[in-house]
Amino acid sequence: MNTREEVGEFTQIFNALMSLMRTFIFKVLRVGPIPTNISFIMDGNRRFAKKRNLEGLDAGHRAGFISVKYILQYCKEIGVPYVTLYAFGMDNFKRGPEEVKCVMDLMLEKVELTIDQAVSGNMNGVRIIFAGDLNSLNERFRAATQKLMKLTEENRDLIVVVCVAYSTSVEIVHAVRDSCVRKSKIGDGSVALELSDIEECMYTSVVPVPDLVIRTGGGDRLSNFMTWQTSKSLLHRTEALWPELGLWHLVWAILKFQRMQDYLQKKKKFH
Ligand code: IPE
Ligand code: MG
Predict the structure, then answer these.
(1) How big, in percent rounded to 5, are the helix, strand and coil portions of the chain?
(2) 92 in contact with ligand 1, CB cutoff 6 A
(3) 3-class DSSP state for residue 89?
(4) From the centroid of its chain, how far is CA 121?
(5) Cα–Cα distance between 23 and 224 in angstroms, integer?
(6) How large is the C-alpha radius of gyration of the chain?
(7) d(C-alpha 24, C-alpha 127), whole Å
């Protein structure tokens, strides 16, 4: 056996052991309540690239995609039904044009790769939904998001909502406009909006409100992410940069959610 084969065999054994360990940890975790929707504010990609001396404008964001892959896998194994990812905020469009293009190109590359995966039936039951002002994306990107949503619409094991060109302010304006149009079409000319009318027209109305919001990169802000929907969510911040977020950070956040269940349930009932 040559060294390469030995390394390959070692990696296989290591992965099998890790998977066994996860199965055990997640089984224990499932004794308590599991969040229905975990939302991630993925922050710290550029700091990660700087810390590791990685070259290229997209280096940190590329590393961030690896984290996305693992975190989704863990959430699916734990049995979390919905995950919401804050991938690109409206404010991020204010970054330098080169960086915006770089992140957009990278996202398009990943969406197209995932389309290939979906076409060959390798999605493992994962449904992808994009939420945000998709009209502000370029034609190719928008078409790719529509295609991926269509290809995965039957999948049920994990529903992933990817927020791109998203901010809650834009979402509310869009929802109010849309619900006015809907109402004026069916009504007698007078538009009396109910809360439920607006909520139905939110970009993120396809998923339940988040029970747990995890923000990486040490920030204490919601950065215009689901501010309408998170009034009763547990917020958990970690100093870990998004590409550094691992199994233990996720398990720790869910344990905190479980420890605070009584408090969270009381707040849901009595405000
Ligand atoms: C988050 O990481 C990714 C996007 C907003 C696209 P940042 O790019 O904000 O990285 P930091 O926070 O500057 O390190
Ligand atoms: Mg940041």
Answers:
(1) 55, 15, 30
(2) yes
(3) strand
(4) 22
(5) 35
(6) 20
(7) 26
Adjacent-strand bridge partners of 237: 215
At 143-174, the pLDDT tens digits run 999 999 999 999 999 999 999 999 999 999 99
Q: Is the CB of 148 under 6 A from ligand 1?
A: no
Count Cα neighbours of 138 within 13 Å in the Cβ-side half-sphere: 10
Which residues are bridge partners to 163 per DSSP?
86, 131
Structural domains of the chain, ranges and CATH numbers in brackets: 34-270 (3.40.1180.10)
CB 75 within 8 A of CB 247: no
Helix (H, G, I), strand (E, B) or coil at 170: helix
CA of 106 to the centre of ligand 2 (A): 17
* Residues with Cβ within 8 Å of residue 84, at least 6 apart in sequence: 37, 38, 39, 40, 131, 160, 161, 163, 204, 207, 210, 226
What's the token pair of residue 40? 């991630």
Longest Cα–Cα distance in the chain: 80
108-127 mean pLDDT: 97
58 belongs to the catalytic site = no
pTM: 0.94
Average confidence score pLDDT of the chain: 95
Ligand nearest to C-alpha 225: 1
Q: Helix 3-29 to helix 59-78 angle, to the nearest 10 degrees?
A: 50
Over residues 68-84, the mean pLDDT reads 98
Is any atom of ligand 1 closer than 6 Å to the C-beta of 243?
no
CA dist., res. 86 & res. 261, Å (int):
25
Contact 135, 191 (CB under 8 A): no
Please identify which residue in the block is written with the tokens 């007078």. Answer: 190
Cα 241 to ligand 2 centre (Å):
9
